[in-house]
Amino acid sequence: MPAIDNNDLTGTTRRKPKADVTEIGGHALSPSTLMMGYGYDPMLSEGSLKPPIFLTSTFAFESAAAGKRHFEGITGKRPGGAEGLVYSRFNGPNQEILEARLGVWERAEDALVFSSGMSAIATLLLAHVNMNDVIVHSGPLYAATETLIARILSRFGATYVDFPAEASREEMNAILAEAQAMAAKQGGKVAMVYLESPANPTNALVDVEAMRAAVDAAFAEDARPPIAIDNTFLGPLWSKPLAHGADIVLYSLTKYAGGHSDLVAGGVLGAKQWLGPIRMMRNTIGTICDPHTAWMLLRSLETVELRMTRAGENAEKVCAFLKDHPKVEGLGYLGFLDAGSQKDIFDRHCTGAGSTFSLFIKGGEAESFRFLDALKIAKLAVSLGGTETLASHPAAMTHLSVPDERKAALGITDNLVRVSIGIENSDDLIADFDQALAAV
Ligand SMILES: Cc1ncc(COP(=O)(O)O)c(C=O)c1O
């Protein structure tokens, strides 16, 4: 057993893992390699190659002084967070290893994991938004996120302005000016710019670089609101928004990161400056993910690149088949964008087209339902990013709560079927889509 690192000066007693190997002779290791062991030292756990699941509600302190020092970190009395394990509502070994590995994908300074994508989003907003503040957000957003901003935070005196995901730099300037005027009138501040790109379910892309330039031009650096972005559809492989000017990246880890449709979790990545208050809020309300889910995610991250690559290749083949099909009105697939501003954003921000797309069936709800009911391999279920192909009808399911006029404005039509392609054999998937379209 390694010696316990008793540091009497600071009062910390945490056994330190050995330093991670992140480069060999100047060659930087890729995230897919680091997913096998980064952030975990087997010698701290009896040599167990994989981390044990730490099923405990609390952690014993080496001394009362160590306990005091840890609580100073937990409560924010001392910056930098907890230096040791304290209580499972605050932190735990499985969650910390997962946070270390998740951060690798975007070279994030800090990462936090949550019990769901929505608890990550809620904790983020509760941490950064106060009464009379204004949130600027792109549209559409995942319906529960829209509900949270428009119907729940408004109960506590926060307001919002929204803009279409496809907005130009000029439109972004205008929306920020509108938000600043609203905030001044209300006696609050512009608390956050919240983006979702690609948007659920339309796949519309937001120009993150343009929004960062617009925010930098509109605000003094010390009064700048953070730009947060939901990267669930393309992350962590095909889009890395921190590199394009975002400050905080959000994930429903339930999707591609988990990847097997067997868990629910969320993640937040970014600089400590922005994540500090979110960590404090998570400590207070207890939205951290549980150790078992964290362990499952560590297992999933080992194959995330393999799974996403295969799903992306399959989606390209399936979309090539659907593109000119007589029963198909159109496709919202990022791999087939026509030249224009969306293609320009895609080329600058994304390294892959993903495997989730919108399929517009000729007809309306009845035709779309017939198609969905006829699928034999693809499962009729909401969610995305799993090993299996899923199809759903956003207007009647995930976005049912969105008012009809807003659905129409956002392009969430009755003939829109959302498809998430999995890792099955692509010829089998094409055969399934072919026979289901024949039933329309
Ligand atoms: C883009 C996006 N963000 C957030 C969420 C919420 O994630 P969760 O279901 O893990 O709470 C979802 C769920 O579908 C989503 O699609």
UniProtKB/TrEMBL annotation:
<dbReference type="GO" id="GO:0016846">
    <property type="term" value="F:carbon-sulfur lyase activity"/>
</dbReference>
<comment type="similarity">
    <text>Belongs to the trans-sulfuration enzymes family.</text>
</comment>
<feature type="region of interest" description="Disordered">
    <location>
        <begin position="1"/>
        <end position="24"/>
    </location>
</feature>
<dbReference type="InterPro" id="IPR015422">
    <property type="entry name" value="PyrdxlP-dep_Trfase_small"/>
</dbReference>
<protein>
    <submittedName>
        <fullName>Methionine-gamma-lyase</fullName>
    </submittedName>
</protein>
<dbReference type="GO" id="GO:0005737">
    <property type="term" value="C:cytoplasm"/>
</dbReference>
<keyword id="KW-0663">Pyridoxal phosphate</keyword>
<dbReference type="InterPro" id="IPR000277">
    <property type="entry name" value="Cys/Met-Metab_PyrdxlP-dep_enz"/>
</dbReference>
<dbReference type="Pfam" id="PF01053">
    <property type="entry name" value="Cys_Met_Meta_PP"/>
</dbReference>
<feature type="modified residue" description="N6-(pyridoxal phosphate)lysine">
    <location>
        <position position="255"/>
    </location>
</feature>
<dbReference type="GO" id="GO:0030170">
    <property type="term" value="F:pyridoxal phosphate binding"/>
</dbReference>
<dbReference type="GO" id="GO:0019346">
    <property type="term" value="P:transsulfuration"/>
</dbReference>
<dbReference type="InterPro" id="IPR015424">
    <property type="entry name" value="PyrdxlP-dep_Trfase"/>
</dbReference>
<dbReference type="InterPro" id="IPR015421">
    <property type="entry name" value="PyrdxlP-dep_Trfase_major"/>
</dbReference>
<keyword id="KW-0456">Lyase</keyword>
